[in-house]
């Protein structure tokens, strides 16, 4: 963090992730609570459709974004992306002041495009400026920063949307963060193009097919991408249910939802940072299986702790976060710590998730051909987005079968076990290095 090769880049990506989530959360909050000011369309329908509008650019533009990141010098490309962000935030501000859902939805789509273009640059930048022994630590810092930025953006977004003068407060916030992000990007050092002679294929369909075909031929990278995409499926499934989990299962208000989100994000951040220490600066695939085992066990326990609360606590009054934390007695006055157990479950799911994801991103960075690295990461982003969409479909299917939110968590934990078994069968190195890592850790 003291060095120019990392610090400006870290804060640029941190501010970008924060702004993405501030704007998106503010818009969805406005739609959920004040849809009549913006449109005649039902607020619940819009709140469901808008996140999909943010994800859509990952399917449409990732293939092109990967080519741009390989062909052009990255520091200048990042600065162009940040200028684009400022323009989007001006566009969004007009939408807030005019109460125009069309402008706001277009701005949300363009912010998705902004994130799509930045993604391949983000992960291909690090191998150019960090030594291989520093990549685990660097990726850990980036993942920690990203999840803290997401948390900060969501909390700020919900807060600004509920203010009396939300138009001016939200507009000032998103513009200030965008301008600060551009200012930070000016300190990013020169990062030479990996493939300056590349002829860009502007057809996203054929280029996506070509990229996926390329990584399919390298099964180590392909399986790492499937594992990363599964992580986003797993995380999206849990995070999407946190608002309803807080309200309908735990009998908590909005502050309990924010508490759950905060605990999860901090868990991921700590787990990501711990990767460097636990792996001793090298790509340690054993941590992936270790993380997966922890995610499964803790999610199963989350099912039990949330089910117990739902069955034994009264739903007459919604708890705030302080009431939720201090609720440690059952109906017979016996002292228990179910709320603390549930919070520990969520924190540790995040912690093991951090251990799971960081080695996989580092593996892709170190194993990918230098001139094709950004396009590999772009293909990864496409598959990630696909898995997140499938996550939403999976959740809808589970609820249509009349299962509860805790039962959805249990089903996800069981699926996690199935996916990890498949991963170990296809690439035994995950299992063998895990056993070796356990022996060395004793």
Question: SSE layout and pairings?
Answer:
Elements: H1 7-38, H2 43-71, H3 74-98, H4 101-129, H5 135-161, H6 166-185, H7 204-216, H8 219-249, H9 254-279, H10 286-312, H11 321-326, H12 338-367, H13 373-400, H14 405-426, H15 429-441
Helix pairs in contact: 1-2, 1-4, 1-5, 1-6, 2-4, 2-7, 2-13, 3-4, 3-6, 4-13, 5-9, 5-12, 7-13, 8-9, 8-12, 8-13, 8-14, 9-12, 10-12, 10-14, 10-15
Radius of gyration: 22 Å
What is the straight-line distance between the termini? Answer: 32 Å
Q: Quick one: CATH class of the largest domain?
A: Mainly Alpha
H-E string: HHHHHHHHHHHHHHH
**What would you call the shape?**
globular
Q: What's the pLDDT, averaged over the residues?
A: 85
Can you put this structure into words, describing what you see?
- It is a single chain.
- The chain is mainly alpha-helical and 442 residues long.
- It folds into two domains: 1-185, Growth Hormone, Chain: A (Up-down Bundle); 218-442, Growth Hormone, Chain: A, CATH 1.20.1250.
- Helices cover 81% and strands 0% of the residues.
- It has 15 helices and no strands.
């Amino acid at each position: 963090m003291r060095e120019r090769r990392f610090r400006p880049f870290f804060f640029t990506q941190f501010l970008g992730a924060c702004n993405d989530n501030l704007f998106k959360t503010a818009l969805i909050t406005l739609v959920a609570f004040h849809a009549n000011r913006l449109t005649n369309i039902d607020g619940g329908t819009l709140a469901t459709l808008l996140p999909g509008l943010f994800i859509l650019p990952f399917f449409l533009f990732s293939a092109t974004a990967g080519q741009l990141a390989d062909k052009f010098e990255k520091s200048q490309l990042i600065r162009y992306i940040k200028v684009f962000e400022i323009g989007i935030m001006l566009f969004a501000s007009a939408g807030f002041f005019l109460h125009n859902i069309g402008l706001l939805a277009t701005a949300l789509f363009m912010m998705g495009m902004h994130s799509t273009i930045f993604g391949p640059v983000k992960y291909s930048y690090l191998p150019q400026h960090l030594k291989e022994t520093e990549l685990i630590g660097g990726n850990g810092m980036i993942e920690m920063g990203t999840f803290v930025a997401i948390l900060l953006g969501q909390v700020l977004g919900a807060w600004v949307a509920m203010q009396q003068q939300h138009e001016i407060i939200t507009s000032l916030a998103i513009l200030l963060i965008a301008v600060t992000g551009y200012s930070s990007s000016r300190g990013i050092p020169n990062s030479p193009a990996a493939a300056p002679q590349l002829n860009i294929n502007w057809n996203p369909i054929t280029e996506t097919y070509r990229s996926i075909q390329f990584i399919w031929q390298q099964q180590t990278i392909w399986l790492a991408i499937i594992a990363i995409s599964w992580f986003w499926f797993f995380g999206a499934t849990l995070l999407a249910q946190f608002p309803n989990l807080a309200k309908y299962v735990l009998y908590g208000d909005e502050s309990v939802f924010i508490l759950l989100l905060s605990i999860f994000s901090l868990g991921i951040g700590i787990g990501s940072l711990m990767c460097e220490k636990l792996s001793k600066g090298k790509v340690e695939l054993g941590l992936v299986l270790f993380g997966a085992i922890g995610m499964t066990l803790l999610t199963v326990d989350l099912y039990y702790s949330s089910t117990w609360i739902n069955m034994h606590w009264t739903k007459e009054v919604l708890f705030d976060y302080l009431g939720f934390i201090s609720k440690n007695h059952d109906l017979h006055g016996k002292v228990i710590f179910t709320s603390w157990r549930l919070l520990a479950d969520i924190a540790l799911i995040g912690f093991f998730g951090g251990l799971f994801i960081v080695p996989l991103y580092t593996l892709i960075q170190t194993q990918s051909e230098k001139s094709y690295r950004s396009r590999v990461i772009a293909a990864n982003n496409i598959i990630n987005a696909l898995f997140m969409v499938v996550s939403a479909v999976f959740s809808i299917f589970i609820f249509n079968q009349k299962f509860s939110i805790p039962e959805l968590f249990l089903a996800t934990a069981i699926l996690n076990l199935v996916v990890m078994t498949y991963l170990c069968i296809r690439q035994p190195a995950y299992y063998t290095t895990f056993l070796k890592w356990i022996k060395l850790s004793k």
